[in-house]
Amino acid sequence: MLFFLPSPLRGLIAGLLLVVNTLFWAAPLFLLALLKLLLPVRALRRPLDRALNACASGWIQCNNLWIRLVQRERWDVQRPAGLERQGWYLVNCNHRSWVDIFVLQQAFSGRIPLLKFFLKQQLIWVPVVGLAWWALEFPFMKRHSRAALRRNPQLRHEDRETTRRACEKFRHVPTSIANFAEGTRFTPAKHQAQGQPYRHLLKPKAGALALAMHAMGTQFRSLIDVTIAYPRGVPTFWDLLCGRAGHAVLRARTLPIPLEFSTGNYEEDKPFRARFHRWLAQLWTEKDELLDELMAPGAQAKPPAEHAATDAAPVVR
Which of left, alpha, beta for 246 (phi over 0: left; psi -120 to 50: alpha)? Predict the structure, then answer.
């Protein structure tokens, strides 16, 4: 444990461990991705995909180790019972910080298949990691301005086709598709600009969620609805490296995916789109109410490092 060191020194050590860990797992991952590219044989796809996912899982497990070395306070995690590693899940979560990704990975690693996130197209240029995300076939989504969409309405279909192609590949190996429905991290400025329809959340964007449900059909076992809160303040990535991420709270529940969401046409069927928006708005209202509880002053008085993650029975709030 490195708790006795000054936090900036812990941050430097953790950053070095993260870099070494990333480079260590990137080497076999890139080799496997090259084999997959050069040998596009269907019979080889499944074992190569499993090997690629194993590299990513190894990277996550090693990250969890250095986080425990520098982070004195254990995170308060409650997962639904009955999760399986050999199934397909759609994971929907609010978004507060880059730390959310590490919280999600620590909470679900080894309990469900590898989480694969919808990412902004620009993130493919992140050194080493961007190429690793590409090798793991994370969907990269493009963001077009309203002006660009008015000039070329066909741009609206690019993300739909990206989602369709990615989900088609995910059918072959158990996968968890993770989506931050807000589309961006919550900030007070963004919240204010939206007119504050929710107290702790930005308005959800339904497109990627609806397209994933339609593309995967009934293959998803369920939707894992995840809520993350930081009652003592939202940490930055540097805070995480320095062991100052503080008290993170994760609550998750499993929900059935309505059958019509696997067959309806979100793009062209307006009544269906309206029903989907109402369903998602209800989820967001319940999430906002849960965040009220998690962010309440009394909820911040949690036990220190001994507080462990638990697997609870599924709860529908």
Answer: left
State the pairing for strand pair 222-229/249-255. Answer: antiparallel
At position 242, the amino acid (one-letter code) is C
- Beta strand 89-93 with 176-180: parallel, antiparallel or unpaired? parallel
CA distance 265 to 105: 32
Of 242, 232, 308, nearest to 70 by C-alpha is 242
266: phi then psi, degrees, rounded to nearest 5 = -65, -40
Task: Residue 253: name the closest of 280, 275, 286 by CA.
Answer: 286
Regarding pTM above 0.85, the answer is yes
DSSP string, 145-214: -HHHHHH-GGGHHHHHHHHHHHHHHHTTS--EEEEETTSS---HHHHHHTT-SSSS-PPPP-HHHHHHHH
Question: What is the SS3 assignment for 91?
Answer: strand
**DSSP-based three-state secondary structure for 227:** strand
pLDDT along the chain (317 residues), means of 10: 88 96 95 89 86 95 94 91 91 95 95 90 88 88 67 71 78 89 90 88 89 83 94 94 93 93 86 94 96 80 46 48
